[in-house]
Specification:
five-stranded mixed beta barrel; alpha+beta; OB fold (Dihydrolipoamide Acetyltransferase, E2P); 1 helix
Length: 106
């Protein structure tokens, strides 16, 4: 009887762990970052194709390519305040999905 109850508890814990693992892959926490937009990649014609935001502490956040994030391609070397959610990829790079942004005076 005790072994059966213990097995059920262990099974329940395993199910909860498996269910919770994918939750870490989702974008959840919205943050606000003030920093400078830098070009991190260009095409063969010299046009900026990828940017990151570098904050005052030296943390670099690579901007996710989507409709809002791609608007920062035209703001290289500008100071911005961005709101978005951060995800850390398997290589440890911080990516930010931009929800809103504005120019930020120095």
């Amino acid at each position: 009887m005790v072994q059966g109850r213990f097995a059920k508890v262990v099974l329940l814990l395993i199910v909860l762990m498996v269910w919770a693992l994918p939750a870490g892959a989702y974008w959840e926490n919205e943050v606000e970052i003030k920093g400078t937009v830098f070009a991190v990649d260009n095409d063969d014609k010299g046009r900026t194709t990828a940017v990151s935001v570098l904050d005052a502490a030296g943390e670099e956040y690579f901007v996710v390519h989507d409709e809002t994030g791609d608007k920062l391609l035209d703001l290289v070397d500008k100071n911005v305040k961005v709101k978005g959610v951060i995800n850390v990829d398997k290589d440890g790079k911080k990516q930010i999905k931009i929800k809103a942004y504005e120019l930020f005076p120095t």
